[in-house]
């Protein structure tokens, strides 16, 4: 079985004195360069980076896992349309315990109004979601 720890890391590069704008971040897994959720195995996810895995297709990238990949588990729900399963190496059945990280920049945004809403996630085995090292409930 596979396990993963999903972490969101905020990269705040500076505070802006200028106008603040609304920000929407799509944390969905399996996004291709156009922002579309891919359901095709071995498609690189452009947002989530993997670390601490046993195997990598091309570190630190993560890739969509579909039923044709060795890493697929038949008990998972299907990929798409809102997200797809991802792993460091979809073509290897033992990626081990690994971390997935999504980094985003809040420069120019009002940090006091920042909030996560409507987030849902699923994982094979066990894990948590953390923001800047703090586990989210």
Q: Can you tag this structure with a few keywords?
A:
seven-stranded mixed β-sheet, 137 residues, disordered N terminus, mainly beta, globular
Question: Would you spell out the secondary-structure blueprint of this structure?
Answer:
Layout lengths: L2 E8 L33 E8 L9 E4 L21 E2 L9 E8 L24 E3 L2 E2 L2
Parallel strand pairs: 1-5, 1-6
Antiparallel strand pairs: 2-3, 2-5, 3-4, 6-7
Question: Could you please describe the fold and organization of this structure?
Answer:
This protein has a seven-stranded mixed β-sheet, with no helix packed on it. The protein has strands at 3-10, 44-51, 61-64, 86-87, 97-104, 129-131, 134-135. By secondary structure, the protein is mostly beta strands. It is built from no helices and seven strands.
Main sheet: which strands, in order across?
Answer: 4-3-2-5-1-6-7
Helix segment tally: 0
Mean pLDDT: 84
Order of helices and strands: EEEEEEE
Quick structural overview:
It is built from no helices and seven strands. The chain is mainly β. Strands 4-3-2-5-1-6-7 form a seven-stranded mixed sheet, with no helix packed on it.
């Amino acid at each position: 079985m596979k396990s993963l720890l999903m972490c969101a890391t905020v990269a705040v590069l500076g505070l802006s004195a200028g106008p603040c704008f609304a920000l929407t971040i799509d944390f969905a897994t399996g996004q291709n360069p156009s922002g579309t959720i891919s359901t095709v195995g071995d498609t690189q996810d452009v947002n989530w980076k993997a670390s601490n895995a046993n195997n990598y297709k091309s570190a630190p990238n993560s890739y969509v896992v579909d039923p044709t990949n060795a890493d697929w588990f038949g008990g998972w729900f299907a990929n798409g349309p809102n997200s797809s399963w991802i792993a460091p190496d979809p073509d290897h059945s033992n990626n081990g315990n690994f971390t997935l990280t999504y980094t985003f920049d809040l420069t120019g945004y009002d940090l006091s109004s920042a909030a996560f809403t409507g987030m849902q996630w699923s994982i094979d085995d066990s894990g948590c979601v953390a923001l800047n090292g703090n586990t989210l409930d």
